[in-house]
């Protein structure tokens, strides 16, 4: 695929390989790794707009942005246009120029609250949310699925609504809500979404390697791709797609992530987070299951570092 910059409203990001929002994973230290391997734009995990309103400590911690991160987008979910607008205007989100609105989360708890993918059933509300957020003066992007199920495909209609309401870019996950993460994305519907709007369209779903990225662009004509589960196992995939030959030193990457997190998150959180991340990175290695158990048993930093040294010796 052609690697090229993407213009999102007044902001130009260096390339069209995006690192998806991933709840529990895409913190600043992981995003740093993704940028290092060549991601053009990263996203925070989804954060509740209501949580921000009530100044929830946990929510603010999820939104730490390192000074060297330039354009990272903060992702919000919610259903109340004014609460979402207030979140966009909040002090906590001041470091973020780009706000991404989650209109695709399939999780029942979110869906039942009329948030995430429930908005695929309620275009007027989704439109009010986007135009309210736009009034904050931020650059607004929207991530949505193609519908809640096969009988209710709304991709093009939804994309047109996003554009009309002022969205600066859309990311379309080419699966319906009921499929969660299973199966091939619907390339034809993503292609129709791309055809239906003038704002940039980023395609998401099932991109795990360079060939997948090529196929996604070829079949959909999208302006770029967003990778999600692939980067949990291998954030270096960005370099592979870019055709860069540098391999990655997983041990050094994990140790760097630990160093980056410690001063911001403290030892306890860093250990919990990094044993979770490391258990993804070791997938496919010899003795993986055994190492995974040992990783989860490591309850302090020196035990974790020693185990990382052993695994990657
Ligand atoms: C563990 C996990 C956490 C996720 N968290 C979010 C999230 O916070 N916000 C969001 O918009 N999508 C989230 N997603 C969905 C992904 O961003 C992406 O749309 C989906 O995994 C499809 O892409 P893939 O086939 O490349 O994995 C999550 C997915 C997974 C597996």
Can you walk me through this structure?
- This protein has 14 helices and 10 strands.
- With 313 residues, it is α/β, with parallel strands linked by helices.
- The chain folds into 2 domains: 6-241, TIM Barrel, CATH 3.20.20; 250-311, Non-ribosomal Peptide Synthetase Peptidyl Carrier Protein, Chain A (Orthogonal Bundle), CATH 1.10.1200.80.
- The strands form 2 sheets. Strands 3-4-5-6-7-8-9-10 form an 8-stranded parallel β-barrel, surrounded by 6 helices.
- Helix 9 (210-220) links the parallel strand 9 and strand 10.
- The longest helix has 32 residues, at 250-281.
- The protein is globular.
- The model has no long low-confidence stretch (mean pLDDT 96).
- The structure holds flavin mononucleotide.
- Flavin mononucleotide binds next to strand 4 and helix 10.
- Belongs to the dus family.
- FMN binds at residues 75, 143, 173, 204-206, 228-229.
- Its EC number is 1.3.1.-.
- GO terms for molecular function: flavin adenine dinucleotide binding; tRNA binding; tRNA dihydrouridine synthase activity.
- Catalyzes the synthesis of 5,6-dihydrouridine (D), a modified base found in the D-loop of most tRNAs, via the reduction of the C5-C6 double bond in target uridines.
């Amino acid at each position: 695929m052609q690697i090229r910059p993407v213009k999102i409203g007044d902001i130009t990001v260096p390339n069209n390989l995006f690192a998806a929002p991933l709840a529990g994973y895409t913190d600043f230290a992981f995003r740093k790794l993704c940028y290092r391997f060549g991601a053009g734009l990263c996203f925070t995990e989804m954060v509740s707009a209501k949580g921000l309103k009530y100044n929830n400590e946990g929510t603010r911690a999820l939104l730490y942005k390192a000074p060297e991160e330039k354009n990272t987008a903060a992702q919000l979910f919610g259903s109340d246009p004014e609460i979402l607008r207030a979140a966009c205007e909040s002090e906590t989100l001041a470091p973020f120029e780009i706000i991404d609105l989650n209109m695709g989360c399939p999780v029942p708890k979110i869906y039942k609250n009329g948030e995430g993918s429930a908005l695929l059933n309620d275009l007027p509300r989704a439109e009010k949310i986007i135009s309210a957020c736009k009034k904050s003066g931020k650059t607004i992007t929207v991530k949505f699925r193609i519908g809640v199920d096969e009988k209710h495909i709304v991709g093009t209609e939804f994309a047109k609504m996003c554009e009309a309401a002022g969205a600066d870019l859309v990311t379309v996950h080419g699966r319906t809500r009921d499929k969660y993460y299973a199966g091939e994305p619907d390339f034809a519907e993503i292609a129709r979404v791309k055809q239906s709007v003038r704002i940039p369209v980023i395609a998401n779903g099932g991109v795990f390697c360079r060939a997948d990225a090529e196929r996604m662009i070829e079949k959909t004509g999208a302006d770029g791709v967003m990778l999600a589960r692939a980067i949990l196992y291998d954030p270096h995939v960005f370099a592979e797609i870019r055709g860069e030959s540098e391999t990655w030193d997983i041990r050094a990457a994990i140790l760097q992530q630990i160093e980056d997190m410690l001063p911001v998150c403290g030892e306890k959180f860093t250990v919990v987070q990094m044993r979770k991340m490391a258990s993804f990175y070791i997938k496919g290695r010899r003795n993986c299951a055994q190492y995974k158990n040992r990783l989860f048993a490591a309850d302090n930093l020196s035990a974790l570092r020693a185990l990382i040294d052993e695994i990657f010796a």
